[in-house]
Amino acid sequence: MFAEGVLKLHWDQSVPVDVAHIAQRMGMAVRHSSSLATCAQLQINAQNQPSLTLCQHHAPALQRYATAQALGHLALHHLRPGLERSIVVTEDFALDDPSRTEREAQQFALRLLIPEPVLRYCVQDMAMLDILELAHLFDVPAALMGWRLMDWPMPMPKPRH
């Protein structure tokens, strides 16, 4: 299932998108750990129950993005029961992982955190063109907003003078 499908099923239409609520609705248990070596660890047990452990020492923005990325792995069926996957999120939120499944989960996370209908409304109807302003609205780092706008199929409007 793509991010748009997850949003359609589990999103309450509010911004910023509540990824913790979506994780709960998708049956994913989320907990925090002080001893995790990576930003997050996604597991699916033998009974097909997903769980996500977040490193509590990472910034909330990193944890939020890692949660969205974990939801991507789950929705895109990247893990089978009994398997686990580390989710590494760098401070610059680079989207250049050599793994196809990681890139798919990263793109999923962008689309989940920054839903296209709201982005379109903000940019085209409200003429919000400042990346920092948009990043604040969606509660994402400016780097992620920049990546999302590069990926966006709609042309950016010209600033009004």
Structural class: alpha+beta
Distance between the termini: 42 Å
Q: Which ranges are low-confidence, i.e. pLDDT below 50, for 5 or more consecutive residues? A: none
Q: Which percent range describes the beta-strand content?
A: 5-15%
Properties at a glance:
single chain, 161 residues, alpha+beta, four-stranded mixed sheet, 7 helices, 4 strands, 45% helix, IrrE N-terminal-like domain-containing protein, IrrE_HExxH
Describe this entry's structure for a reader.
The protein has helices at 3-10, 19-25, 60-75, 100-113, 116-125, 131-138, 142-151; strands at residues 29-33, 40-44, 50-55, 84-87. Strands 1-3-2-4 form a four-stranded mixed sheet. The longest helix is centred in the middle third of the chain and has 16 residues, at 60-75. It is globular and about 50 Å long. Helix 1 (3-10) runs parallel beside helix 4 and helix 3 crosses helix 4. By secondary structure, the chain is α+β, with helices and mostly antiparallel strands. Pfam families: Peptidase_M78. It comes from Giesbergeria anulus.
Question: Any chance you could write out the topology, listing elements then pairs?
Answer:
Elements: H1 3-10, H2 19-25, E1 29-33, E2 40-44, E3 50-55, H3 60-75, E4 84-87, H4 100-113, H5 116-125, H6 131-138, H7 142-151
Parallel strand pairs: 1-3
Antiparallel strand pairs: 2-3, 2-4
Helix pairs in contact: 1-4, 2-3, 3-4, 6-7
